[in-house]
Amino acid sequence: MASSSDHEIVSELLPFVQVYKNGRVERFFESERVPPSLQDPKTGVSSKDIKISTNPDIYARLYLPSKFINTTEKLPLLLFFHGGAFCIESAFSLYHQRYLNVLVSQANVVAVSVEYRLAPEYPLPIAYEDCWTSLQWALAHHHSDKYDGSFAHDLNEEPWLKDNVDFNRVFLGGDSAGANISHNLAMRPADENDIRGIFLVHPYFWGSKPINEVEINMELATKMWLFVYPSAKNGVDNPVCNPFADDAPSMSRLGCKRVLVCVAGKDPFKDRGLLYYEGLKKSGWEGEVELFENEEEEHEFHLYGPDSESAQLLFKCIASFLNK
């Protein structure tokens, strides 16, 4: 017989998550999980699932165009971080499997799509740490002497990275929350040659002071941040959420050479993306930043309609960025 705690809600972030008194977490708004593919019939991309770390347990889905398997041709490496408000979705979801298949096919890259742990069971900054660990794991395939030696005990070398990656062309990228993660990893101290560039698609950034009329009524964006990172100093003005907060480090420290910012015209986060683009240009950062806009589209539209003309234009832009 079910107890009252089975149905008593203690916290929620609608329309995404409800948390019950007995500890159960119910997620909504997610796409189905799908297995990897030996060779996707539409794109010719192979994928497989691996374990990156055993302490903590971190998993990922790897992608490689099938034509490069059993070769030593060197390709760019993309560390990809999915969106989902830091609390839903997965590297193993249908949406992201379709997305990565298309992007990897068009760009001819090796991709590592990271299954970072989600709030509320694992509140931020855990996702940032999981993704940082994943980046260090990937880079350890190139120069293990400079990174955490524990990987050698936890893992076998991954042949798709060892055989097919040009480690002079390492990129980070993601959508929404994943774009936020990409920026924050690039802000951490690292060798300047480790990351060539980052792409941010419909990035989630926020702040306590609205920058347009739309934000005045966007209570969900603030509520989301406090739900996934309850211990964040200064709330939505924590620098990992608001790169232009008073105590945020200078954007001139961004540890890569190139940035692509992608926004959508009907996305309520659009102006935050534009602020990021303009702020980076004015910061004294010495790299190259590009802006791409799908004028008539919504937040993360490309996940729901990957075959649309607008989505194809977005994919083409990202693929071009990864190959410059």
UniProtKB/TrEMBL annotation:
Taxonomic superkingdom: Eukaryota
Record-linked InterPro entries: AB_hydrolase_3, AB_hydrolase_fold, Carboxylest/Gibb_receptor
Domain Alpha/beta hydrolase fold-3: start-end pairs: 78-302
Gene Ontology terms, MF aspect: hydrolase activity
Name under which the protein is recorded: Alpha/beta hydrolase fold-3 domain-containing protein
The species this protein was found in: Papaver atlanticum
